[in-house]
Amino acid sequence: MGRLVLRRLGATVPVLLLVTAGVFLLLHLTPGDPIDVMMAESVDATVKENLRHELGLDRPLHVQYAAWMGRLLRGDLGRSIRNGEPVIENVSRRLRPSLELALCAMAISLVIAFPLGIASAIRRNTTIDRAGATFALFGICMPNFLLALLLIFLFGVTLRWLPISGYTDPLEEPWNGLRSLALPAVTLGLALAAVVTRTLRSSLLEALSEDWVRTARAKGLSEGAVIYGHVLKNALIPVVTVVGLQLGTLIGGAVITEYVFALPGIGRLVVDAVFARDYPLVQGVILLIAVGFIISNLLVDLLYGWIDPRIRLR
Fold first, then answer.
1. Most Cβ neighbours (<10 Å): which of 104, 106, 220, 257?
2. DSSP letter for each residue of 213-261
């Protein structure tokens, strides 16, 4: 197990190097200048050049990249061009709302997907299966922003049950915090639940067609023991893969949902930083998102060995 973790961590080094280099080049090749964004056109050109020199933006790209990597190796992500604050402080303030939103959305999706996926596989070609297929098709095809607007109109405007925007920390005010996360979490959770439902149903149907399932039934095991004791565990590998990948996506990619509901999360932070050409902030956020994906993939690899001992973790 320890060798697996070390090997996976070693393999992430070139990945992170490619991510940092790619993001750095794309940002600097994109039209626009952070100094022009920060200052009005009427500001004297000399003032702009002095600020550009002070921030090191007038140096060659390879020199800027080497300087940023040198600070990164010391654990310094740099300072935001817009407000001068350390990037790590900007990110730390926005990370909690995104994590809370991702965990709530994941919980909602699993609560919906597992019962519906199992029922659809067991009751194949019945009304339950058709209802599950309809839900999955709806969740996959419905754009997040449109679903968010529909939920806002129904639960926020018409029924007035839930707030339509803003964020309250659940750790400080649990009830109000959960209410502020309810609509965005449902928006993301329904889409993920649709994917997990279809994946789980397909995986269960494949496992149910195996010879060992007929053997288990012939030995007199109840249907519940066959499904929950044997089939479900063997069908979890694709589901764990999907959930692990989606968790990383939820943490860093819920941009539209965070904008619609005015949540101060990572996704909204990186979009604002891109528009402001805040190079250090964008680079730091993308790097942390990449680390989040790597950690989620590592956890998925470890879960493989726990779910199926036939998978050797070397």
1. 257
2. HHHHHHTT--HHHHIIIIIHHHTHHHHHHHHHHHHHHHHHH-HHHHHHT
- In a domain, residue 146? The reply is yes
- Residue 38 domain-assigned (yes or no): no
| Burial environment of residue 222 by CB neighbours within 10 A (0 to 12, 13 to 18, 19 or more) | exposed
Token pair for 250: 């939820």
What tokens were used for 247?
């968790």
Number of domains present in the structure of the chain: 1
Alpha carbon distances (Å) from 133 to 109, 198, 231, 238: 15, 8, 21, 18
Query: What pLDDT does residue 252 have?
Result: 61
Rounded distance between C-alpha atoms, residue 299 and residue 17, angstroms: 21
Residues 281, 212: contact at Cβ < 8 Å?
no
Of 255 and 107, more confident: 107
The CATH code of the domain that includes 197 is: 1.10.3720.10
Q: Are 81 and 281 in contact (CB under 8 A)?
A: yes
If DSSP codes are grouped into helix, strand and coil, which group holds residue 86?
A: strand
36 assigned to some structural domain: no
SS3 85: coil
Query: pLDDT, tens digit, for every residue of 178-197?
Result: 998 999 999 989 988 999 99
Q: Residue 170 is part of which domain span?
A: 87-307
